[in-house]
Amino acid sequence: MEGGEESISFVNQQFLSSRPLDEKNILEYFSGSPFYDKSCNNEILRMQTQFRGLEYSKATLSTMAGIFYEVLSTNTEKTLFVVSKSYNHITHTEMLGIYYIMHGYVYSAPTNYSIYRSRMTDSMWMLNSFIIKMMDRKKFNPFSIQRRKQSTNKIEDGSSLGFMMDVFNEFRKELEPRRQQ
After folding, report:
1. Statement: residue 73 has pLDDT above 90
2. CB 102 within 8 A of CB 111
3. What's the whole-model pTM score?
C-alpha cells in the first residue's frame, strides 16, 4: 500500500476556526476527511435522524451490520482524539483501521504490515551496508569460492573473525546517529 492512507493528512481550518473540537463534534469533523466512508452506518443514521431532531446512539449503531466509526479516546486538553473504523458483523466486530486527530490534523495510524515492512527494509539495508563495508575493507567477496577456501583456514586461527568483529563494531558506531533520529 505504498503511498496509501498513511501518507496523507487532512485539516479543515474553516471548521476549526468556527468551533473547538470536542467529543460531540469530532465525528462530524472526521466525516469531512478523505478517510471517511460516506456509505457507513454513521452516515445512514445521520441522514435518517437529521430532519427529525433525533440523536442516534452507539447502541443503535451496534444493531446495524456494516462499517461504523466511533471515538475510542481523547485527552483532557481536547488536542488528541482516536477514532476507529470497524465492521459490525452483528455476531462480532472487526477493526478495519485507526485514525488519530492531533491539533485538528487527521492521520491514519500505521498498520502492522507497514511497521513490519519498514523494519524489514531497515534490517536489509543494514545487512547490505555491512557486507559492502566488509567488501571495501578487505576486498572481501562472500560469493567467491576461492575466498571461501582461504577464509576457512583463517577462521580457525581467528584472524578473519577478529576482522569481521572490528568491521561490525565500526559499522555499529556509524549507525548510532541514525538510530537516535
Report:
1. yes
2. no
3. 0.65
